Amino acid sequence: MAKSIQIESSAQKKLDKQVGVNVRFITLVSIVVAFGGLMFGYDTAVISGAIGFLDQRFALSPSMSGWVVSSLLLGAAIGTAAGGYLSDRFGRKKTLILSGILFGIGTIGSALPSSVSLLVLTRILGGIGVGMSVFISPLYIAETAPAHLRGRLGSMSQLAISIGQSAVFIVNYMIAQSSTVQWNVDVGWRWMFALGAIPAVVYVIFMPFVTETPRWLAANGKRKEALSVLNRINRDEEVSRKELEEIEASIRQHKGTTFKDVFKKENKKALMVGVVIAFMTQWAGINAIMYYAPEIFKKSGASLGSSFLNTVFMGVVIVVFTFVGLYLMDKAGRRKLFLIGSLLMALALFLIGLSFKTDTSGTMVLVYTLFYLAVFMATVGPGMWVLLSEIFPTKIRGQAMAVSTISLWIGDYLVAHSFPVFLKEIGGMPTFWFFALGSFLMWLFTYKYVPETKNRSLEEIEQLFQAKS
Hints:
The protein is mainly alpha-helical and 469 residues long. It has helices spanning 2-19, 23-58, 62-90, 92-110, 116-144, 147-154, 156-177, 181-194, 197-206, 214-219, 223-233, 237-253, 268-283, 286-299, 304-332, 334-358, 363-378, 380-390, 397-425, 428-449, 458-468. The longest helix has 36 residues, at 23-58.
């Protein structure tokens, strides 16, 4: 296995040399930009450790508990809507810097309030930053990376999300175990939120050093700057000129585009795929697990300490299998990973639900949850962001991806807000079987409507979707 990977790595380096790609430059830029996903990962997972203590601190009902968790997603929907316009108007880079600033203010603010209303307001503010960064980061990478590297580099956004989630599971566990339950109810949850300012500060410091995307520059009449960026990506100036001509030809087809054009007939197929896939990933229950993991484990029979420790195991699986996803994305392709992943996720969710009835210790719930996370992170998780970032034409990419991502936030909000009520009122088995249904429907949709996009340029993908429309 190690030998085959080494051979393949050597072959990839040879290919990069043949096509004249500056891999070091594009990789470093992608790493910095993808760091925005770490903010998203931290903020979505931090609530899983804090919500149990917040329930006690503010005497929250299941419905109000769901509102505290999902309020971030309301902000994310606002941030996504605003980010689509801002990134198309002022550039991907400037909008990403703004997202880091808003996230930093929001996460520090979440650590300070003495009332639920103030906590919700600061989470909404942080969510605006999250909503901007989580879809613009993969969009930026898609507009910058060469076709044969786009899947792998685009998956870095999911890797950053996974690292953020894994890190916060460890942070939550260490804080929760550092003192008494009462201390955590009074103070501990504040530290969980406050430490999220660290990735925001790092992001805002490093983002000014990256370039703007060549496609945004070309779309906004900055031809010289676009060619300069392409020359840093490609070692052959002739390749850069040819690529710029292809980009400009695509842009001319959409000259004078407005938001209404996102819904035009030629964009219908791509928009349908983006909206439905984004929503389905949330129906499949990923963020119910991320937001409520300790509460799920406690409900299945685990102790408080074991519940937090189980999330550390989750974090390890999340990061390890996201690397697997990075490896597979440009090898197996997006469509194949979605087809395999959605079926295996449906199986895992069915078994999680069944375990609520057959296992009183919580052990099998943990085992099947880890299986579910491994599959999601190796297939659907990174695949969704890569797919959303590459299926829309350049001129409408920011706004069209924003529409798709808002669909994701709507699904995420519905799951996050209703999950604690469902868990209490109907129990774990029906709840997770409902998520299994969502995963199976995602498989059906992928089989019927989602084409393969690997190793195609963004302009080729645009033609593919318009032909199918």
